Amino acid sequence: MYASREDIGYDFGDDSKVGSKPVKPNPNIDGGWAWMIVFSSFLVHILIMGSQMALGVLNMEWLEEFNQSRGLTAWVSSLSMGITLIVGPFIGLFISICGCRLTAIIGGILNALGWILSAYASSVHYLFLTFGVTAGIGSGMVYLPAVVMVGQYFQKRRALAQGLSTTGTGFGAFLMTALLKYLCTEFGWRNAMFIQGAISLNLCVCGALMRPLSPKDLSEKSVVRSNSEDNRAKALSHSTETIKSNGVLGDEPEKKEEATTEEVLESVQHPEIGGNSGRGRNMYGLRMLKTVSQLTLTVRKGFALWYSSYFGAASLFTNRVFVAFIIWALFAYSSFVIPFIHLPEIVKQYNLSRQDNVFPLTSIIAIVHIFGKVILGIISDLPCISTWNVFLMANFTLVTCILTLPLMQTYVGLAVVCALIGFSSGYFSLMPVVTEDLVGTKHLANAYGIIICANGISALFGPPFAGWIYDITQKYDFSFYIAGLLYMVGIIFLLIQPCIQKKQPRQKPTEEAQV
Questions:
Q1: Neighbouring C-beta atoms of residue 299, cutoff 10 Å
Q2: CA torsion angle for 47, 51, 52, 57 (degrees, to 10)?
Q3: CATH of range 314-504; options 1.20.1600.10, 1.20.1250.20, 1.10.4100.10, 3.50.50.60
Q4: What per-residue string of b and e applies to 274-294 under the rule 16 or more CB within 10 Å gives b?
């Protein structure tokens, strides 16, 4: 259904079960509980990404409270945004060991704790630790599972499902901006952060809704997806050497690990069956040993999968298009977050506060962002449309808007550009889909963790860099120009690498592979 793999020109070879007998898919895939997963992810995006997009309100309060430079104060917001995404690869390890549900619940508690502790901040540096690091890590522990679970539960309508769930960012930015403004006006920014911390405890409820699929269901999803793609039977003719050259991870280590696990557990369970004498005394010890053995093997298996994905001989980094995707992510996200952090200050400089108070520019971005995600998701799900091409066109539109924004000095002009920024940034809903097309469902958690980590680095340095440029030039113009040019460099990497990949000749399949 998705033309991304063919258009990119990269052979991924992750659908190895083509030709197997038909399997009845789980009714919860593409339906049933899958829509509860979308709802849970939607709420996560409201509470996490929406709150972070509204940090411009608190940034103004922190500037007045602590009387620090704009560059230093912007580090609070950028740390929270950046760490939320940077911890992605490490959260992938937690997911491999503990699963998405437990990881998200722990993250919800940590995020709420960061907001509450920040209410007692005595300096900007205190906020670095409580809000930037603590709340940031907690946000990352909830955000990645929310994205991964949607990818696991959907096969036919992945782009639409991701689009619907990530519209929570737009709703959240609109709602949280209004909420934080009201709370800061009525109760002060400290009490506002305390109340927001209490609201963030609802992330634990969102995590509890993330009911995991069984390994059997995941394998059925892989088979259904393989049979639904055009001419997927050609995968049987790909040679083993071609598969290795494309950086696809094999299943043999996992099968051996599962066999070892079963042997160890059987050896633990055997004394329970045969030992009648002293059974009451030894039963507790045997159960404890069995529990410890299961936990140890689960941790080893999760760490092995996580380590092989990043550092193994056939790691994700051997996929050249995926590496180009990472380079793009390093430059892209800062161009989106800089307006959210610094637009309130820009509006104040242009004496447009009266119009902005009626309808804030950041709210315009947030509202149109909602429609952008849904519309781009629907377009990408059309059989004749390439998700990859839609993704690239949206990026070109966004970078053009970033370079144009400094030229607008009226409210109407800024509102039009902000609306275009909101719509084109709807490509965020396509990022999990593109990532899954690149590496497959099995490695989505680790791969998307790398992508959001690169986005986190971009978000970490973007707003402070813009504030630092302002402290030197007393203008934000150069900040947008430099960010836009770096963004364009990342897009060029996305364009060049697939073209190089298409020109590389394919190896002829061996006789064993044909058989």
A1: 14
A2: -170
A3: 1.20.1250.20
A4: eeeeeeeeeeeebeeebeeee
* Cβ atoms of residues 426 and 373 within 8 Å: yes
Degrees (nearest 5) of the Cα angle 377, 415, 164? 20
Token pair of 388, please?
């990859």
Q: How many CA atoms lie within 13 A of 288 on its CB side?
A: 5
The whole-model pTM stands at 0.64
464, 342 in Cβ contact below 8 A?
A: no
189 three-class SS? helix
Q: Judge whether residue 181 has pLDDT over 80.
A: yes
The CATH architecture annotation of domain 27-218+298-312 reads Up-down Bundle (1.20)
* Domains in the chain: boundaries: 27-218+298-312, 314-504
- Exposed, middle or buried, 91 (CB in 10 Å: 0-12/13-18/19+)? buried
Q: Hunting for tokens 């990342």 — which residue is that?
A: 490
Name residue 397's amino acid: T
More confident residue, 225 or 464: 464
Please determine whether the domains at 27-218+298-312 and 314-504 fall in the same fold group of CATH.
yes
Phi-psi region of 294 (alpha: psi -120 to 50; beta: other; left: phi over 0): alpha
Summarize pLDDT for 477-515 with one digit per residue, the tens. 787 888 888 888 888 888 876 555 554 444 444 444 344
